[in-house]
Specification:
The complex is a heterotrimer of chains A (about 170), B (about 325) and C (about 750). Chain A contains five helices and five strands. Chain A has about 170 residues and is of the alpha+beta class. The C terminus of chain A is likely disordered. With about 325 residues, chain B is of the alpha+beta class. Classes of the chains: A alpha+beta (about 170), B alpha+beta (about 325), C alpha+beta (about 750).
Chain lengths: ~170, ~325, ~750
Amino acid sequence: MDQHFITLTVNGDSHRVPVAVQDTLVDVLRNKLGLMGTKRGCTSGSCGVCTIQGEDSRAVLSCLALAIEWDGRSLTTIEGVATPAGLHPVQQAFLEFGAVQCGACTPGLIMTAKALLETNPSPDEAAINEALAGAICRCTGHIKVKEAVRQAIRRMAATTEDADGAPQG
Amino acid sequence: MLLPAFRYLRAADIGEAVAALAAGGDGAQVLAGGTDLLISMRQGLVAPVTLIGIRGLQELDGIDTGATGDLRVGAGVLLTDLAEHPVVLARFPSLAQAARSVGSRHVRNMATLGGNLRLPTRCWYTNQSADWRASRAPCWKTDGGLCHVIKTSETCRAINSSDTAPALLALGARLRLRSVRGEREAPLAAFYNDDGVRHTNLARDEIITAVLVPPARVRTLFVKAAARTGLDYGYGTLAAAVTGANKAIKSARLVAGSVGSWPVTLERAGQIIVERGLNPAAIEAAGEATREDLGEVANLFSPPGYKKRLVRGLVVQVLEQLRRIKPGTD
Amino acid sequence: MARRKAELDVVGRSQPRLDGPEKLAGRSVFTDDVVLPGMLHGRIVRSPLPRARILNIDTSAALRLPGVKAVITHADAPKVYVGIEQPLFRKDIVNYVGDEVAAVAAMDEATAIEAARLIRVDYEPLPAVFTMTDAMKPDAVQIHAKAKGNIAWAQSRDHGDVDATFAASAHVRTDRYSTPASHNCYAEFHSVVADWSRPDKLSVWTPTQTALLFQKAIARALGLTDGAVRLMTLHTGGGFTGRSAARPHHFIAPLLSRKAGRPVKIRMTGDEEFIVCRAGGEVQYRFRTGISSEGLIKAFEADLTFDTGAYVESQMIVLILTAAYIHTLYKLEATRYTGKLIHTNNIPYYFHHGGGIAQMAFGLGLHMDALAREVGMDPVDFHLRNAVTKGHTNMTGTFFGSCGLKECITKVTKKAGWKRKYGKLPPLKGIGLGIGAMASGAKGVFKHDTSAAFIKVQDDGTMSLFIGLPDMGQSSHTAMAIIAAEVLGAQPTDITVIAGDTDVTPLDVGAFTQRGTFNTGNAVKAACLDARQQIAVTAAGILGVKPARLEFRGGKIYPKGEPEKSLPFRKAVYDTLHSREGRFVMGRGFYNSPKETGTMAFSFGAQVAEVTVDPVTGMVTVDRVIAAHDVGRAINPRIVEGQIDGQIFSGMSQVLYEEMLLEDGQVMNPSRLDYKLPRSHEMPAVEHIIVETIDPFGPFGAKEVGEGPIVCTLPAIANAVANALGVPINDMPITPWHILRILGRRGPAGD
């Protein structure tokens, strides 16, 4: 088995990780870095529970990303979303709006929603649906998820309008 | 569930990539986005010995308009970027619509135009795990000698489900291809075969570097009929491109995707529009002609009768919409 | 104790779920996240053929592979049975594609997969049957010697004089329907971790709806006492009835672990999910109803034939559930129910989200709608005329202590603008009504329907609530904390819920048959009242009043009507412990429905769906669903809404999208891509009307909401589509090809 070392920055922390050439990011995150928040689902790109954010903040599927291609790159997982100050506005909105039920899809949905809002701060309904279509949610039927996302949009827009421009979590 | 072992080579530039491809023989493949290849590898459908990573190569990147006026889209452009590019949206909206239809946004953030054009054909007898396939005799696609879909078929009838292919075919696109033998251009129209196995004419050691779209003033639309919007293959797709005014149509290309082993150019339907113009009676006639244009349709993912009715309905709907767009409108 | 809303501090207010923050931060541990020292990876070897004789099993190559620690076949488990009489591993004959033949455990997944491939099984294919029709033919292959004619189970029951009542009916109508094979498609794949490295104790982690029944099934199958099996439910990623019975992998993992002497994890692959899930199989229905000239239902007959697949594990339950259903909706004079489970060489089935009832409601709703129209009645009037009401006792002896069915129908149709729309919409647009009811509890399905609870109160006023009820997303734990908080005058956040560990938590039949809120809720209430009494004794001593006069509200204890004479709850608890007695506050309670059979309470509902049919694609857009549900009392309104939403999604999915397609017994679409579950775009706008009839037996009047909504959604959408098309609908899912065929037959552009 071909073994390589890659440098991977996860949630701001730099790691030097031994990987097999056929390891995908979801394997490395869970089995090598102990970050179990990113879930292993269908491993064929059709459920979205493995969603992480790449360095451009876009949502990508860690089950279809070869770890070796991420050498020198950075990414964000669910563990990097909340801050010591508290939940991220997206997480907070999900909590308040009842958008979490069984929780198995939740990390993937949070990353998807966060990626959406960081790449498109004022998405319309079509853009929200488009982003969420890649992440399955069997329990909520996406309804409260979308309400939460709309609320998060409002809250994040309000905070970025703060005159002092203080950085937000 | 797991990927098989392979060797990985990161190509520094396109020259390295094609050299490695040539040197690697049958077991070498390029890896761009990987959103389809990795699934096929997990299912044991393909087992590359060497994967040559070409993600992010500068020569495959970028969307620009060259001196000839052709729109050049790098084969390595991510589908998200293609779908949102202002020039593409303005001049060739069908291409943006098609790019936007592929998979989910997550997939489009990783997948490339080149990868989608080369997308292997699909069939529910073959796009399954190795254990699943052990229940049945091998077929044309899996080194066997029969087709499970159409029992009498001498060729593989798996379905070409690329969304960008129909759109680019309707636009009369060309491909730029590179190998150790140099660079060549070829019309996309000659790229696909009506064969689920040998579905393109790409040489084994060739890489698509760019797609060129000729600079016509064209009215275009792409529609996809799929069970779900976002993350689904279509039951049928239709790309349409017309030039000229409604009363004097210069060219009309209609291409149906996801219904056959190749994107099906609806020749007769397009001809009717050129001959008669874009008006309700001609549109109706074009719709009726699709049955003949489609030929035999396989019972795969949806019944053949449905696919035929669907394509006919989409042709009429799309042509009606195009008729209402002012020619030359950006 | 039917308290008014103003007297309740916690119950009835929308609360975020207590485990929300940990789930949102990705800190919740699901079974696939469990990593134990020395843990191996297991893989099951399955038959690729639907029916075959096993000639030989050769495990030698697998055993020689480095890293393989255990290989097991029937020889290792001769007396292990799944369900009633199905041996765990096949020895002689395999009966479906996926049937378990062997299993391996190895150091890593790749080795386990390779080892599984190295196990060589030689088969001699045998003739097989795949449809119920074929299976019931006289010359059909007999799949099991004991099931003559491939009839695995049959049940029939009459109430009243059926033939005479039909004869006396002014109008009789018969319809046939079908629903397809399906898959529950939860977000968390099936998985199990078993540790039997200690011979005297087996620990199992798995997502489940019932720790108790899994514990017992595993203990019985493996010849252990209940106490030797510790079943731990971590978080359960969705249930939808699919996790209420143990599956073969729950027995295989322990056996691998015992043989290897190390823990073993088995996690299903994408397509394996579609084999092990045991959701619904195809069902054929025939309904016949006789009504009077005033439109009153007199007689009803239901004849259901279920494809039960290769083995009956516990699917006979569906016969009980579907037999009772009609009696929960309408007042009737006579009924006949005939149900059969038929063996085929398809996957062993169970039932999908909705417990067989939702699927039956698809056809039942269409049938009643068609009947109403046939005699010139508006379906709304028809249902109102026949609906059960509060105080009614039905023919099965069920008494409805609360019933908001008529209220739901009236409210939902008013909000939908039914009178303005029904029969007046433009072509291709439709509106439909679906009504439903759902039992809160399992009595009648099981002999006892007990839930128990303990609560311990720390001297700082925080509490630990021990229950046996898993939370698979329906927020049952938060609901229990709310009930506890209400009784003790505390906040839900003061309470830690500890659940689903059979070594620690008390007995609870589980989270299915919609029993959680009602049964466990009543148990929790009883336990908290017990604790409260203990604290009240101390407080009464301090305040100089009788304990019975004391109220517990807002963290304080005071005599009723004298809030100024209050004592902090914490002080009373502290003093109870730090007294000479040193009495630690621990409350215990249990609840079991006092009825012999049947449950104490039913939820009721009605939904109206509006749809648009696309004439080009044949696809249906559900534009809007309005849902009115009598939940007794909404313990946590936002959660109730979320349940309604999720079930509307699931119901819509079944009517319009879902179908597990099998060919020669093999699932053709075993992925979330080819098995069509709708996604974000497809969801309609949903409006909720929560009706509260305050059930006399439910905790604070609450009843279930875990499956009441979905049974309304299927008939509502089905009726709306039939309304839009103007033709009868008989088969589920209502596919785009079926719709285009219908439109083609009538439209100007027909083929």
